[in-house]
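Project standup — Tuesday

K.O.: blocked on the structure for the chain from last sprint. Re-posting the sequence here as requested.
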Amino acid sequence: MELSLRSPILGLLLLLLVAVGACGGGSEPRSASTGGGSSDRWASDEPLVIGAIPDQEPQELQRLYGTVADYLSETIGVPVEYLPVTDYTASVSLFRVGDLDLVWYGGLTGVQARQQVDGARAIVQRDIDEDFQSVFIANSAAGIESFGHVSGLSELEGTRFTFGSESSTSGRLMPQFFLSEAGLGLDDFDGEVGFSGDHDKTIDLVEAGTYETGALNEQVWDARLEEEEVDTDKVVELFRTPVYHDYHWVIHPDVEELYGDGFIKAAADAFIALDASVARQKEILDLFGAGAFIPTNNANYGRIEEVGRSSGLVE
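H.V.: unblocked you, prediction finished:
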């Protein structure tokens, strides 16, 4: 069972720890903080809880968001903790109930989260998220040649096809939209379409021949190619979609009630300040596959919302 950092059970445990500390010869009770410490600038030293959609392998996510948590704690001046989630839906649910304060979402999950929390805001995105793309790939044995226009996706008809997560923007929503632009529905594939769960698994399944074709995030595809972790004799790139806005950080409006006015701007500024000339900050940018973070806003995801409604994934 996944235990929320702000659940009643954990709250009772913390109270017990404080009580034990008070009876232990005058020693200070252990703080709930995990790094960075609090600042006189903010009204609370309660940890800011960050999360992310689980679109990569868990060890990669832990490395990335653990590093981000340390950086934010030092930069903003409050403790920051990373809370892993089991799936895309959990990231939205935990944000809705206030157990996640700041979440790295794809375009679709960001829209879904903001719909459920009045006043939630998209604050920053990577420079690459202004013009993001999905990649369609195929097992070489399928005999499909690469093509340069959306209409070429009609060549995938009759193949065994897999998306990534059911709630992924780059691994499901936009690929399905572009397939529809080429005249293909989900019934036009061989059997039911698959949902691999994440982009890395999509590559692995297509490479293994479990599925003949698939679609995924361009960033993961390019990174796997660069690291020579794709057998290009077995799997080939077919097509890169037209561009769209994708990943972004979404912040819960309650943070300003907890920490005080100006906290949301401080969080956004911390990401925008990341500097590739500073070694530790460059590490964060490299882990995100970004040159910089830039401001964004809810309106940039209007197209994602529109496509989500037409697909039945957004109410």
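K.O.: great, moving the ticket to review. The radius of gyration is 21 Å. Residues 55 and 234 are 23 Å apart (CA to CA).
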